[in-house]
Target: Signal peptidase complex subunit 2
Amino acid sequence: MARKKQANGSSTPDGTPGVVATNHPRIDIMAATNGIEREVIKVNNANLTELKNACDDAVKTLLSRKELFSTIHTHTDIRLGLGWAGVFVAFGTAFYGYKVEFEKSKPIVWAGVILYGILTVTQALYAYFVERDTVYVGKRKTLAKRIETERISVSSRTVPAKREDPPRYSLSVSYVRSANSGKSLLGRGKGTDQRGYNEFFDEEGALDQEVFDRWVAGVVENVMEEK
Model:
């Protein structure tokens, strides 16, 4: 896999990694991990939630390296915004109800309760229908005669065990390359792959991060190379 050369000291106004000079979208993800000392990740092998969360965290740690992509926090920001709005509404409503006579405060208190409910439900609906299984969203800018923007979205889920097949970690990747602030679509790709958790975790629940990273890198690079 050919490596790409990143311009020294280059950066973009929105905080994405420096513009990468290249004639194609391919990158060597594993090259970005060379010489990196990884912390030991150990979980309970019998807990599928812990297994999935460990893999999700490893995906985010790998792809968010500054040599690769700049993380987009839109989903997190929206959920946090809705959550904090609900907290402020609840606090304001409780404080108003405490300070004002019960009968006089009822209309405002009811409005606060309804608004809090709307914010809570909206947050849950956003997580379920919009964010869904998204693990990581990132982008980077490349230079190939013009500045291009590459955006990647990664989602995951656990595939339950079936007969002799162990539980599996399924990874789905979506990739879009565009120019002119997204007005010109240059390419896109999608791909899904899955592996048994037992291929990444040993009997004591320790994650073989090099094996896992190599698999994730292969899935992502294959999707980015699609025409």
Observations:
- The CA atoms of residues 200 and 211 lie 7 Å apart.
